[in-house]
Specification:
The protein has 6 helices and 5 strands, in the order βαβαβαβαβαα. The protein has a 5-stranded parallel β-sheet, with helices on both faces. It has about 150 residues and is an alpha/beta fold. About 50% of the residues lie in helices and about 15% in strands. α1 crosses α5, α2 packs across α3 and α4 runs parallel beside α5. It has a single domain, classed as Sugar-phosphate isomerase, RpiB/LacA/LacB (Ribose 5-phosphate Isomerase B, Chain: A). α4 links the parallel β4 and β5.
């Protein structure tokens, strides 16, 4: 799978760990940065990662910051993106099965490395259920972008 990734300085170490983990599994990663621990603005990196998903360059995307809140808000501003802020494995599974999310956000200061990798693996490895009721709800959410 081709996955976009972006982070700010607060999540650089976790981003690098996630990239190595996913590459070891055979995924292709498009890393939009940041690449240094210097203070930076999370919307710059989250937007690039989200646009890659929205434009079909990448199938899914992961964004990270200290809490995950800022990057999830920024990613969700990009038309066509459904980004879930995740801090547990059950939510990672459910947001794929029920919401067909194409992006996930994680907070490096909220979730430890081992749990973060479990969340990523669950989210990457879970398919959308395809249920009519879930698709109907997704369609209604996505229609909100048209207003």
């Amino acid at each position: 799978m081709k996955i976009s990734i972006g982070c700010d300085h607060g999540a650089l170490d976790l981003k690098n760990t996630v990239v190595k983990h996913l590459e070891a599994q055979g995924h292709q990663i498009v890393d939009f940065g940041t690449h240094t621990p210097d203070s930076c603005d999370y919307p710059d990196y989250a937007a690039q990662a989200a646009k890659a998903v929205a434009e079909g360059v990448c199938q899914r995307g992961i964004v990270l910051c200290t809490t995950g809140i800022g990057v999830s808000i920024a990613a969700n501003k990009v038309k066509g993106v459904r980004c879930a802020l995740l801090s547990d494995v059950m939510s990672a599974r459910m947001t794929r099965e029920h919401n067909d999310t194409n992006m996930m956000a994680i907070g490096a200061g909220v979730v430890g490395q081992m749990l973060a990798l479990q969340i990523v693996d669950t989210w990457i490895g879970t398919d959308f259920s395809g249920s009519e009721r879930h698709q109907r709800r997704i369609d209604k959410v996505m229609a909100l972008e048209q207003n």
